[in-house]
Structures are given as C-alpha cells and as structure tokens.
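quick q for whoever's on today - can somebody do inverse folding on this one?? i tried earlier but teh output was garbage lol. tokens:
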C-alpha cells in the first residue's frame, strides 16, 4: 500500500514547500517552484525510502584504524594531482560539465586505469551498451575487469552492485537515474537528491569509490539542487567550452585534498590526453611585436602557470564605453581602469577596453592585476612590452603594488621557459628564496612598473 503526497520544490536550491510560492525564501529565485507528486510505502513506525543501510558502531577515536585508508592512483597524473594524490575508497565524486565536453570520455580513461586495482562497474543511463563499447574501442579501452550496464532504475543498480561487488562505480549520469519510490520524473530536484543520498550510503557502507556524472544548465551551474554538492565529497567541473581544444578541470570542493588545483587536458581523436607543460602551450602562439600583450604567472593550487594577458582599446562609437572581459574578474578590471585614469591620467573615459586571457583559463587570484594594468597602458599608448619579461603583483586603489604569494615558484617557472626579467612587488624582495638567473625588479607603484616597461 502506498500513500500519495504532493509537494513544491525549488528547482534551484531544493527548498520544499507545501504550497506554490512565487519567490523562493531560501535562494531568492523567482518562479522556480514546481509541483512534484511522490508515493511512499506505508509502514508501521516510520516512513523510509532507503534501499541501503549504513551505520557503524561507536568507537573511541584512538581505537580507529586507518591502515586501509590508501588512495587509488590512476595513470593520469593530472587527475591524481588535482584531487589530492589519488581516489579515496568510499568517496563520492561529482564530475560536471557541458554536454560533449568529455565527461564520459574522461571516465572511460579513468575506468581503464582503475581496472588494474579492482572491478569497475560502469552504469550508462544515456547510451546503450553498444554505444559505450564503440567509444571504448575508439579510446583503446579493452580491459576485462570493466562491467557495463545500461540502467536508470536505482534499485536495479544497487542489485547489480551487490551482485558484482565492484571497487569503483560510475553513474552516467545522475540526472537520468531515478528512485522507484518517487513518482516524479528523473532529473527533478527530488529524484536527484534522493538518488545521490542513496549512492552516498552505498559508497560509505561498501567502501566503493562512486563517480557521478552531472549535466550543467545554460548558466553553467550544475543541474539539480545545490544540496547535491553538499552530499558528495568532491566536486569537479570542466570550465572550458567544448569547442576549445584544451579542457580545464577544476576542483571546487574536495574533502580529501586541495580545492584550488586544476587539471589540463587536450581533446583529440584518441580521447583526452593530459598536458604536462601548460605554460608552453598557452604561450606557444604569442605575438611578440604587438602592443597590449604582457605575460604573467598565475598560481593554480601549487602549480605556477604562465599566461598571456591581451588588452585592446578602441574609441567607442556609443555614449557609454564597453568593458569586455574574458578569463578575469570584470569587477577587478573596472577597478584597474579607474586606477589608471586617476593615478596615471590615462584617458579611457571614451575608450572601449577589451581584456582576454589567452587559452581560455580563468584567473581566480589578484596577482595578475599588474600585468592587466600594464597591458591596458601598452594598448592605449602603443608601446610594446619586452618579450622576455613577466609581470605579476596586486594593484591597490592608490596605485601601489602589493605583495603576492609563491614568488619563488613563479620565478622558477618563468626561468624554465626562457624569461630573463621580472617585475614583481618590491615587498616580495624581502626574504626571497629564489636564486635563479632572472633579473628581478621590485616596484612599489604601478607608475614605476609602466615606466620600466616603456624603457
């Protein structure tokens, strides 16, 4: 016997209400509530939809052993470094990205590597077995320890897990998987939340590393409720569009490692291949004799990456000048333009300003402020920045250049690629551990940095 119930769920954050609301009181989204009907089995005592039980006995902290807490390393170093050194047993990993960007391709590569460490169960809810097999042959994945199933019913998936007892489970994708006790359509807030919670219990109770592949919306957010990101242990996103050759995978949440690391891959006919030296690739097509180009060093976690900053200014044809930014914070660009106008008397009030970080990388830190400001100055004034110089530092509202972290690591990476000079914050010269061959110039103000580049 089952009891029918009705509820209204916010499709953005998963907030639940007994009636329809125009505005979500949790996330503030308008017209985001949708009606969902679901049925629950009526039992004596309490209602439950759990298909898997998960509990442990109470132990003292000193009595708990961690000898079995060893990571599974794959043959993909970019992926291992990004998640903290390997895959933790019993972890729940969410991999999101735009359609066609390479989520399924990367998971087949990872499954191929992990099949040497244990059985892999690959559940495809979007493709047939022959379609998955065709992709595996194209990627040269022919391991005997990988099992495939085309299934969307969560109960049948758990039955397959109990039968095969794998060490690794791949769900492609979480939006197509549905809980049989919920009458709502797959991909809705209720279904995504319940199936993810059930797979979490499977991962923890059986010590299985579970990978969930997820879709993203037009805005770039993961489809489904925000609570999904709180349920899982690790959240990975593909940042780039599928039209670009290089794919950037970033960790936004990681309970077992850093959250600032990235992995860079190249898409070709044989699948996704890791890029060992991204700095060389991002600077490979740099034009030397062009105004408005500078080179900076950004830190992605513990890895320094050299990036080209491109700036272009043009007289506006409208009443309000445009500020177009790709790869950097647009608010920081507005601040830097104001500093250039006020402190260096640069006439940008009737100039369109375009900023681009070549290669599609999105810089998350403020260390590229100095390089961006110098690029704008170079584009507007017409002088060419030297080819063998790098620039990094944070710019304040008074035009001062503030210190950044990992100075020695940035300089060492620049030296490997043949750079001869560097403009850095003067405060970073104190206790600088770098002993390389780059000629380092410390600057206190944006004006002195621009003056050095002009000369």
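ok took a stab at it. sequence:
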């Amino acid at each position: 016997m089952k009891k029918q119930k009705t509820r209204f769920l916010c499709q953005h954050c998963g907030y639940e209400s007994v009636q329809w609301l125009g505005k979500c009181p949790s996330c503030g989204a308008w017209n985001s509530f949708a009606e969902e009907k679901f049925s629950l089995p009526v039992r004596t005592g309490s209602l439950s939809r759990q298909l898997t039980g998960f509990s442990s006995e109470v132990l003292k902290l000193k009595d708990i052993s961690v000898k079995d807490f060893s990571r599974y390393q794959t043959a993909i170093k970019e992926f291992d470094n990004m998640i903290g050194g390997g895959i933790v047993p019993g972890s729940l990993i969410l991999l999101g990205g735009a359609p066609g960007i390479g989520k399924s391709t990367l998971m087949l590569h990872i499954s191929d590597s992990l099949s040497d460490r244990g059985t892999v169960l690959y559940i495809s809810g979007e493709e047939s077995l022959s379609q998955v097999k065709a992709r595996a042959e194209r990627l040269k994945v022919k391991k005997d320890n990988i099992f495939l199933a085309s299934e969307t019913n969560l109960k049948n998936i758990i039955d397959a897990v109990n039968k095969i007892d794998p060490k690794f489970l791949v769900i492609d994708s979480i939006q197509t998987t549905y809980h049989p006790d919920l009458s709502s359509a797959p991909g809705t807030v209720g279904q995504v939340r319940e199936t993810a919670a059930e797979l979490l219990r499977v991962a923890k109770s059986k010590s299985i590393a579970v990978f969930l592949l997820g879709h993203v919306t037009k805005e770039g957010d993961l489809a489904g409720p925000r609570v999904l990101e709180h349920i899982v242990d690790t959240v990975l996103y593909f940042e780039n569009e599928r039209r670009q050759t290089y794919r950037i995978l970033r960790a936004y949440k990681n309970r077992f490692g850093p959250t600032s690391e990235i992995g860079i891959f190249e898409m070709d006919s044989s699948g996704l291949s890791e890029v060992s030296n991204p700095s060389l690739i991002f600077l490979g097509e740099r034009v030397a004799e062009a105004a408005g180009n500078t080179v900076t060093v950004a830190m992605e976690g513990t890895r320094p990456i050299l990036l080209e900053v491109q700036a272009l200014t043009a007289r506006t044809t409208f009443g309000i000048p445009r500020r177009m930014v790709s790869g950097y914070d647009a608010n920081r660009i507005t601040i830097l333009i104001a500093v250039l106008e006020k402190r260096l008397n640069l006439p940008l009030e009737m100039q369109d300003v375009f900023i681009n970080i070549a290669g599609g990388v999105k810089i998350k830190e403020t260390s590229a402020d100095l390089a961006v400001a110098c690029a704008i100055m170079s584009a507007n004034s017409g002088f060419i920045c030297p080819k063998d110089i790098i620039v990094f530092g944070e710019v304040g509202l008074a035009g001062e250049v503030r210190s950044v972290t990992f100075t020695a690591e940035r300089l060492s990476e620049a030296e490997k690629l043949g750079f001869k000079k560097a403009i850095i914050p003067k405060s970073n010269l104190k206790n600088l551990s770098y002993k390389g061959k780059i000629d380092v110039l410390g600057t206190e103000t944006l004006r002195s940095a621009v003056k050095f580049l002009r000369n």
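fwiw The chain has a mean pLDDT of 88. also The radius of gyration is 26 Å. so keep that in mind when u check it
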